[in-house]
Amino acid sequence: DAGVIQSPRHEVTEMGQEVTLRCKPISGHDYLFWYRQTMMRGLELLIYFNNNVPIDDSGMPEDRFSAKMPNASFSTLKIQPSEPRDSAVYFCASSLSASNQPQHFGDGTRLSIL
Amino acid sequence: AQSVSQHNHHVILSEAASLELGCNYSYGGTVNLFWYVQYPGQHLQLLLKYFSGDPLVKGIKGFEAEFIKSKFSFNLRKPSVQWSDTAEYFCAVKEGGSYIPTFGRGTSLIVHP
């Protein structure tokens, strides 16, 4: 089992640039989640998908953030334009559709916006 | 809405000390409960989970947790911590039938050698 795979692991870019984070969930998992983690706000759920369909994006902070899941094995989180306050670690997680099953997290993308 | 409280934000212990981290949730029905650990610079990984049966659950690395339904609690324990237990610990709760967990804010544990 390869686990949840995220890329890139680190991203440093200047404000105003477009940032795209990528995630490959565990095969067979039908839920995919995007989280943001900061010291100030802890772990925040941004959006989640079920069977590639966005179900709840109420955690997405602004219209600058968007997420897609074109197929069961790939999702992106895009920030355009990026701002310094977007600096954080972004985690992708996937799970099976069962309430007693845990989430499996990727290694995260550490994003720094200068 | 479901809420999860982790009362201790920061805990500092010496090696061999005993650990108990609190977790309380607000939902009154059936729940599925999880503890995750995040080692420095790493991702969250599952420590243990409870969904039915014996309320005392044993996880990896000597951790255990006890589900007390009457107290809406799922506290994490370890009788003797090690320096390598230094990490952030997250409690998460899923309401019965829900696939979406609610996470607590996390507890930062520092263990001095």
Could you characterize what this model shows?
The complex is a heterodimer of chains A (114) and B (113). Chain A has no helices and eleven strands. By secondary structure, chain A is mainly beta. Chain B has no helices and twelve strands. In chain B, the strands form three sheets. In chain B, strands 2, 5, 6, 10, 11 and 12 form a six-stranded mixed β-sheet that branches. A four-stranded antiparallel β-sheet of chain B has the order 3-9-8-7, with no helix packed on it. Chain B has a two-stranded antiparallel sheet with strand order 1-4. In chain B, strand 5 and strand 6 form a beta hairpin. The N and C termini of chain B lie far apart (41 Å). Classes of the chains: A mainly beta (114), B mainly beta (113). Chains A and B meet through strand 5, strand 9 and strand 10 of A and strand 5, strand 6 and strand 10 of B.
Q: Rough shape of chain A?
A: globular
Number of strands of chain B: 12
The count of strands of chain A amounts to 11
End-to-end CA span of chain A: 36 Å
User: If interface size is counted as residues with C-beta under 8 Å from the partner's C-beta, which chains form the largest one?
Assistant: A-B, 22 and 24 residues
Residues in β-strands, percent of chain B: over 45%
Which geometry of chain B do the CA atoms define? globular
- Low-confidence parts of chain A: none
Radius of gyration of chain B: 13 Å
Considering DSSP H and I runs of 4 or more, what fraction of the residues of chain B is helical?
A: under 10%
Largest sheet of chain B: 6 strands, mixed
What order do the SSEs of chain B take from the amino end to the carboxyl end, as H and E? EEEEEEEEEEEE
